Amino acid sequence: MCLASWRSGALPVVARREPLTCRRAITYNQKMRVRILGCSGNLVGRHRTTSFLLDDSFLLDAGTVTEAIRRRDLRKIKHVLISHTHMDHVKGLFPLVDELVMMGDYSVELVSVGSVLDIITNNLLNNLIWPDFTVIPSVSNAVIRLREIPLGRPTILDKISVMPVLMTHTVYTVGFVIRQDDGWGFMFTADTGPTRRFWEVAEGEKDIRFIIADVSFPNRLADLATLSGHMTPAMLMENIDAHDLGDRLFYVSHMKPVFASEIIAEFERSGRRNIRFLKQSEILTL
Predict the structure, then answer these.
(1) Which residues have a Cβ under 8 Å from the Cβ of 279 and sit 6 or more positions away?
(2) Contact at 8 Å (CB) between 104 and 83?
(3) What is the pLDDT confidence band of residue 12, given thresholds at 50, 70 and 90?
(4) What is the DSSP string of 30-95?
(5) The total number of structural domains that make up the chain
(6) Residue 248 belongs to domain with CATH number
(7) Cβ(263)–Cβ(218) under 8 Å?
């Protein structure tokens, strides 16, 4: 075994024979790539809203899609996992499926818990806000295929495990525990205010590389944050301390652009070295 590969965290999988030498060759699990298509709390100027592309074929939320992914790569997307139905997390779904219809025989699986899918089908894909692509071009060959997954239990989607966790927001919202097939993973709060279950789950989850957390407002706007179902720096740090998560790496996401510098300054004054700030277009690896 290559010592460098072992130290890098790659895990050996099924051995195969090299075609020329017939020697056994060991291949390794690929690390998941998480491309940040958008991570802002509002669509202003160059700031794009929440969407993460996992290994080219799996979207986590759909606030930004066609404006960040080349047209020929859209057909690679197989699953779209949705945390909740606010427009900054779903608006990219609509041009995506419209483009796929024009490209030919392509479809995506729209994945979430039942309550989120119900809101989408009843209030968005209702032929009033947007055409019902769950029956276009036909019921048997629709561009959008709905897949309901259970709350609090892992579901495997093409070697990626997803477990929804109920959050506290102004609409029904779930965060997620996301794992690749070697067990390593990350967690995503989606949009949330003060909540309990997610942090309890985080305490018990092992092999989590990082947690992406919503911090939309500075500390001086704590009342507005609570009312709108978001966090401030102080709220996030209180949860980190209360649940003994100081050894975990956190990426702050969903900052309102107008408050971003203020939020960053508040975290920097805390002196915490495990808190970073998610950047649009960067790529994280597990």
Answers:
(1) 36, 39
(2) no
(3) very low
(4) PPPEEEEEE-BSS--TT--BSEEEETTTEEES-SS-TTTS-HHHHTT--EEE-S---HHHHTTHHH
(5) 2
(6) 3.60.15.10
(7) yes
Q: Is residue 200 part of a domain?
A: yes
Q: Report which residue type is found at 258.
A: V
Confidence tier at 25 by pLDDT (50, 70, 90): very low
pLDDT class for 22, splitting at 50, 70, 90?
very low
Q: What is the mean pLDDT of residues 140-149?
A: 96
Give CA–CA dist 161/154, Å, rounded: 6
Residues 161, 203, single domain; the answer is yes
Work out the pLDDT band at 31, boundaries 50, 70, 90.
confident
Dihedral Cα 122, 125, 130, 132, nearest 10 deg: -130
Region of poorest pLDDT, from 11-15, 33-37, 87-91: 11-15
What tokens does 22 get? 């017939």
9's tokens = 């965290």
Give bridge partners of residue 285 from the DSSP assignment.
33
Local structure of residue 189 (DSSP, 8 states): -
- In angstroms, rounded to a whole number, what is the distance separating the alpha carbons of residues 130 and 168? 27
